[in-house]
Design goal:
With 255 residues, the chain is α+β, with helices and mostly antiparallel strands. Helices cover 43% and strands 10% of the residues. A hairpin with a 2-residue loop joins strand 5 (173-175) and strand 6 (178-180). The N and C termini lie far apart (43 Å). The protein binds 2-acetamido-2-deoxy-beta-D-glucopyranose (3 copies). InterPro entries: CAP_sf.
């Protein structure tokens, strides 16, 4: 209840703030959120083909890295990547590929199954954060215009061919169709807070405010702003990016 209220308060406050921003600087990417939501529905659908399937939550740092670097540079540094056609149809397209994989490729021998992890990383159960960027077809593949980075797992663990009674191991708890070991925020919430922080930084620069936190603590509307600040800190502490060190080029899956 308190969480729900907090989210409503945060949303209203952030919506006000984001609406006040100019259209191209609001940093709130509804298209990308819908796409991530689509990937989470798939993860949900594939939960019976894997263990400990976790929800993906949008992450600003991963988005920034995806925006700034090329696919090949990121691949050679061992980043876990998935590419999609576009934000509108991309999730469906990846779903079709995964279904094809389960139907067509599963009866084949291990050696005949050369899977590109860039079409399956979003089904890797142990990934928990994702950030995407628009790219050109030339940078990716013909027909593909979206690239996402996922973290923190360095290894691809693919869905098994046959479904089984999915379970949550090692301290993971089954919650809303996912296995979770913590109370993860959702992507909308994280992106709202990120967009607000961006806005606050912008205001701080424009108004030459050296310490934005003091403005947040001002007692004019203490309840709201303090709640927001606490929520922001909570989210920051929850998210840790680990840069992968191992590159698994092809499927090292257990079938
Ligand atoms: C998105 O990609 C699909 C193919 O998967 C294509 O048919 C559609 O026109 C694209 N939509 C946009 C808005 O580019
Ligand atoms: C990833 O895979 C490699 C090689 O199979 C293995 O040695 C390593 O322990 C794995 N790492 C994690 C975090 O599972
Ligand atoms: C999928 O997993 C759930 C939860 O363990 C279980 O209730 C259900 O029977 C499983 N479905 C299949 C097809 O194995």
């Amino acid at each position: 209840m308190l969480k729900k209220m907090m989210f409503i308060v945060i949303s209203i406050f952030l919506l006000e703030s984001i609406n006040a921003a100019t259209p191209n600087s609001n940093n709130f990417d509804r298209e990308q959120l819908n796409f991530i939501n689509g990937l989470n529905i798939q993860r949900h659908n594939f939960a019976n083909h894997t263990v400990n399937m976790q929800k993906l939550v949008w992450n600003k740092e991963l988005q920034d890295i995806a925006e700034q670097h090329s696919l090949s540079a990121l691949q050679s540094n061992g980043w876990r990547i998935v590419v999609a056609t576009n934000y509108t149809n991309g999730a469906q397209n990846l779903y079709d590929i995964a279904i094809w994989f389960l139907k067509d490729s599963c009866p084949k021998n291990e050696e005949d199954r050369h899977l590109e992890s860039k079409f399956f990383e979003h089904l890797n159960p142990l990934q928990t954060i994702i950030g995407c960027a628009k790219k050109t077809e030339n940078e990716l593949l013909k027909g593909y215009t979206v690239m996402c980075l996922l973290s923190p797992s360095v290894n691809l663990s693919l869905p098994s061919c046959a479904p089984f009674k999915s379970s949550c191991a090692n301290g993971f708890e089954y919650k809303d169709g996912f296995c979770s070991n913590s109370d993860l925020p959702d992507s909308d919430q994280v992106m709202f807070i990120s967009a607000l922080n961006e806005k606050r930084r912008q205001i701080a620069t424009e108004q030459h405010i050296a310490n934005m936190y003091e403005m947040v603590s001002r007692k004019s509307t203490p309840g709201r702003l303090e709640t927001l600040y606490i929520a922001t800190m909570m989210v920051r502490n929850l998210i840790q990016i680990r840069k992968p060190q191992v590159v698994a080029k092809h499927c090292s899956c257990e079938m």
